[in-house]
Specification:
five-stranded mixed sheet; DNA-binding; disordered N terminus; about 260 residues; 6 helices; alpha/beta
Length: about 260
């Protein structure tokens, strides 16, 4: 368990390219009394960070060792090739590995695609990081193949990217140590899977969060029921009592209105 019963907290690791904003926002709405701390980690170190206890759960890139880590695959990223904006490939919608045969394809040491055979021509040296490789692409040294999220992360005005067909893909997953599946981890799993706050699945919320959730549900229910508290109901618009029947005493002043007598033929 992270923290203590009186002051729990939750640490969430994430690798470059992953944007956890949506899930963090939902967490803060549901458990505002449990601080969530984001921990940025390199993709190659994410699993070890979870094993060391540096974070309670994390968004990682598959594969992970399932002997001691649990993982829920979330999505698969499109693989793209990053090129200068004036590159000939910028004129097409998709690039194939054959199109890169004469290109120097940079292969950074933090590559997450796990190529068996990299397309194109190898560079003399491997850049240390993806960020370094991006700088080399901008300098006209070569091109770079990465998941789309990393191309967006390292966006530059002088560069663009195109989808690359028949290439390895990177899958992102939520992972955590199997022996540390705490209540808070269960709740974050529920958020990622789209469960509502009132879902019966998972473990109970911490006491303070339970109380807040009940109060919120009660307030929403009260707003939906008309006439419960607040101002009284407004009367329906229109004339009171509706239209009086023809010839009735309630129709006009002084009784029923007489019609004109018929002429004799």
């Amino acid at each position: 368990m992270t923290g203590s019963e009186d002051s729990p907290s939750f640490r969430l690791a994430y690798v470059p390219g992953v944007t956890p904003t949506k899930w963090v926002r939902i967490w803060n709405e549901r458990l505002p009394e449990v601080p969530l701390t984001l921990v940025a980690v390199p993709a190659a170190e994410a699993c070890e960070a979870l094993r060391r206890g540096d974070a309670d759960a994390g968004f990682v890139r598959l594969p992970v060792d399932r002997q001691d880590l649990s993982a829920i695959p979330l999505y698969t990223e499109t693989t793209v090739v990053v090129i200068p904006k004036d590159h000939v490939a910028a004129a097409v919608d998709e690039v194939s590995p054959a199109d890169l045969a004469d290109e120097i394809v940079l292969h950074p040491l933090d590559d997450v695609l796990g190529w068996e055979t990299l397309p194109g021509q190898p560079a003399i040296e491997r850049p240390a990081t993806t960020a370094d490789a991006i700088e080399l692409v901008a300098a006209g040294v070569g091109v770079l193949v990465v998941p789309q999220s990393l191309a967006r992360l390292h966006h530059r005005k002088d560069l663009t990217y195109r989808p690359l067909s028949d290439a390895p893909e990177s899958r992102v997953a939520l992972s955590w140590p199997q022996e540390a599946t705490t209540d808070l981890v269960e709740h974050f799993i529920g958020i990622v899977r789209g469960r509502t706050v009132n879902s019966s699945r998972g473990r109970p919320l911490p006491q303070a969060a339970q109380s807040q959730a009940k109060d919120k549900a009660k307030a929403q229910s009260k707003q939906k029921r008309p006439g419960t508290g607040g101002a009284p109901r407004k009367p329906a618009t229109g004339k009171s009592g509706g239209k009086a029947p023809r010839g009735g005493a309630a129709g006009a002043k002084g009784g029923a209105k007489r019609g004109k007598p018929r002429r004799k033929s």
